């Protein structure tokens, strides 16, 4: 093959790749959505928005106001307060239950100034508790929310009466499988592309990845994760959060915890394997560990009834 013919073949192949890339972008084009567009479906009553640190934080506050020790629930990366629907339906009959979209996720949206360090998350969560006029609380957190819960407890130990960690981040983790969406968000190239495109299949794959039984993932569940990811600013926030606040840096803080702690874990968690549950249990003196056979990284969402039964016993002690 002559050099001229070779160059023509290379040019044709490059042109074909460009056309394929354009087609893929056009097919998966997904512009940002505003809170006004998303709120009718994802923030009906009792949702409210609370002004904190330059943001309107999406909050749900349910159950008896007379409860002297409210339960505060914090979700993980790319999730939302809706992940706690099952627990809230059960617990709010007898407990005041407060849940909210952490900054960078759900309808709360990005941090002003783009500060996603753990120290800033602690300040924002503490400020939200102040805005809601909460004194002592029980903190619960899943995944990244569990890491935040640990650090809020360390910063304000007198404020937190009990701690519930659900497949919590905080230690280095030897993942056997990472959701596709997380892998793309950590890539400098693909994270930029994902600011304007988002194939729904990526979200579906990611949600199925964190379930112990992927057949439980419904189209409605994928809709929720997909649409809330499109909230303006959230896609950039995920990439920034991964870069600024990696979920493996609080090992030295965990052993300092001195409060009743319940540790819940899914036996099929491939993102943060159960060996990390054992480490939390070892490092937090007097803690209780329950591992749920067959559940994945979000056991509270995958099987609310089975997991909340353990929480009820813990709260009643």
CATH architectural label of the largest domain: 3-Layer(aba) Sandwich
- Kindly report the name of the CATH homologous superfamily of the largest domain: Alpha/Beta hydrolase fold, catalytic domain
Helical region count? 14
Low-confidence stretches: 14-24
| Amount of beta strand | 5-15%
Mean pLDDT: 92
Helix proportion of residues, in percent?
Answer: 40-55%
In the CATH scheme, the class of the largest domain would be: Alpha Beta
- What fold name goes in the CATH topology slot of the largest domain? Rossmann fold
Largest sheet descriptor: 8 strands, mixed
Oligomer: single chain
Question: Based on helices, strands and strand pairing, what is the structural class?
Answer: alpha/beta
In angstroms, what is the radius of gyration? 21 Å
Distance between the termini: 80 Å
Number of domains: 2
Strand count: 8
Description:
It is a single chain. Helix 3 (85-91) links the parallel strand 3 (71-74) and strand 4. With 317 residues, the protein is an alpha/beta fold. The protein has helices spanning 3-27, 35-42, 85-91, 118-131, 144-155, 180-185, 188-193, 200-210, 219-229, 234-244, 251-254, 274-283, 299-302, 304-315; strands at residues 47-52, 55-62, 71-74, 97-100, 137-142, 160-166, 261-266, 288-292. It has two domains: 1-30; 35-315, Rossmann fold, CATH 3.40.50. The protein is built from 14 helices and eight strands.
Which key features would you list for this structure?
8 strands; alpha/beta; eight-stranded mixed β-sheet; Rossmann fold; 2 domains
């Amino acid at each position: 093959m002559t050099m001229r013919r070779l160059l023509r073949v290379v040019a044709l192949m490059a042109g074909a790749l460009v056309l394929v890339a354009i087609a893929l972008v056009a097919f998966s084009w997904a512009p940002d959505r505003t809170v006004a567009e998303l709120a009718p479906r994802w923030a009906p009553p009792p949702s409210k928005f609370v002004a904190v640190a330059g943001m309107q934080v999406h909050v749900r506050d349910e159950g008896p106001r007379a409860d002297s020790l409210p339960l505060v629930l914090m979700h993980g990366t790319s999730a939302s307060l809706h992940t706690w629907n099952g627990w809230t339906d059960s617990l709010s009959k007898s407990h005041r239950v407060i849940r909210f979209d952490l900054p960078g996720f759900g309808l709360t949206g990005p941090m002003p100034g783009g500060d996603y360090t753990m120290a800033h998350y602690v300040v924002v969560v503490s400020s939200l508790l102040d805005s809601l006029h909460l004194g002592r609380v029980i903190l619960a957190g899943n995944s990244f929310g569990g890491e935040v819960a640990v650090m809020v407890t360390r910063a304000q130990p007198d404020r937190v009466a009990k701690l519930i960690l659900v497949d919590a981040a905080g230690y280095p983790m030897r993942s056997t499988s990472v959701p596709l969406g997380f892998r793309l968000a950590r890539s400098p190239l693909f994270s930029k592309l994902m600011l304007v495109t988002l194939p729904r299949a990526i979200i579906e794959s990611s949600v199925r990845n964190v379930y112990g039984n992927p057949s439980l993932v419904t189209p409605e569940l994928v809709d929720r994760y997909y649409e809330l990811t499109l909230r303006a600013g959230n896609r950039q926030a995920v990439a920034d959060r991964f870069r600024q606040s990696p979920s493996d840096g609080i090992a030295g803080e965990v052993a300092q915890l001195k409060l009743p702690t319940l540790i819940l874990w899914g036996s099929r968690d491939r993102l943060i394997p159960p060996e990390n549950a054992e480490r939390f249990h070892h490092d937090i003196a007097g803690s209780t560990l329950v591992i749920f056979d067959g559940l994945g990284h979000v056991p509270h969402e995958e099987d609310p009834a089975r997991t909340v039964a353990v929480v009820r016993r813990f709260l009643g002690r």
